[in-house]
Every structure is written in structure tokens, then in C-alpha cells.
Design goal:
Layout: H1 6-38, H2 45-67, H3 73-90, H4 96-102, H5 105-111, H6 117-143
Helix pairs in contact: 1-2, 2-3, 2-6, 3-6
Length: about 140
């Protein structure tokens, strides 16, 4: 028989609450990304050109934090870079079957269409922003 102590219950509920917060961050980031594409003409040109990819990388970071809530921030950062850069470099491959997937809305949103080196900078910016927001939110919540 396993007996859960109060300390264990607290940490389990903390992790559950963190998952909820990361899920909310994922949904918010997706909505902001879609809005930046739909209403890009209303944004400053620099923001319209760069926000979508930065927000995509932020969503990737929050996704790894959601999945690996018990792991370190460093783990989420590295996995976010590997995943994002891996997707971008995969765009160098232009096989027919892959381009068919990229031709769908979901495929284009996840896999992109063509390699752009500037996207690596956009992804880096997004991951850094997400990490800073994550750290600030965690520090704020832990102080309460």
C-alpha cells in the first residue's frame, strides 16, 4: 500500500496546476499566431513578418513544458531548439509526399513550406521570450 504524504499531494497538485497553465499558454499562443496571420495587415510590417514564427516556437516550448512538467527548463529549451530547427531543416527536403502534407493547412502550419535561415532567428527569439515569460510566471507564482 502506498501512502501519500501531504508534501507529495502538494507537489502533485502543483504539477497539475502547471500543466493547466502551460495548456492555457499553448492555446493563447496558437490564437495569437493565427491572429497574426489573419490580421497581419493591421500590424507593423516587422511584427507581421516575424510574429508567426516566433509564436510558433513559443508554442513548441510551452508544449514541451506541458509534456515534461517535472523536467528542467533547460530540457524544454534544448528540445524546443532541436524540434524547431529540425522542422526548418526538414524543409530542405522537397519530396512529393512531403509537399502534399505541406499543401494542407495543418501541414503548412506545422511543417512550413520552404527553408529560410531567418526563421532560425525567429525561432530562437520565440524560445527566449517563452523562457523568460515562463521564469517570470514561475517566480511570481512561487512567491505567493
Amino acid at each position: 500500500m502506498i501512502v501519500l504524504t501531504t508534501e507529495h499531494k502538494t507537489s502533485t497538485s502543483q504539477f497539475r496546476n502547471m500543466r493547466i497553465a502551460y495548456l492555457m499558454a499553448i492555446v493563447s499562443t496558437i490564437l495569437l499566431g493565427l491572429a497574426s496571420r489573419k490580421w497581419g495587415l493591421l500590424l507593423l510590417p516587422f511584427v507581421a513578418q516575424n510574429a508567426g514564427d516566433a509564436l510558433w516556437a513559443m508554442m513548441v516550448y510551452f508544449g514541451f513544458r506541458f509534456l515534461l512538467v517535472r523536467k528542467s527548463t533547460r530540457t524544454a529549451i534544448w528540445l524546443s531548439f532541436v524540434f524547431s530547427f529540425g522542422i526548418e531543416f526538414s524543409q530542405l527536403y522537397q519530396g512529393d509526399w512531403m509537399n502534399e502534407i505541406r499543401g494542407t493547412l495543418l501541414g503548412a502550419l506545422i511543417l512550413g513550406k520552404g527553408f529560410l535561415a531567418v526563421d532560425l532567428i525567429r525561432y530562437t527569439t520565440g524560445i527566449v521570450i517563452a523562457t523568460v515569460l515562463d521564469k517570470v510566471a514561475l517566480n511570481f507564482t512561487l512567491r505567493r
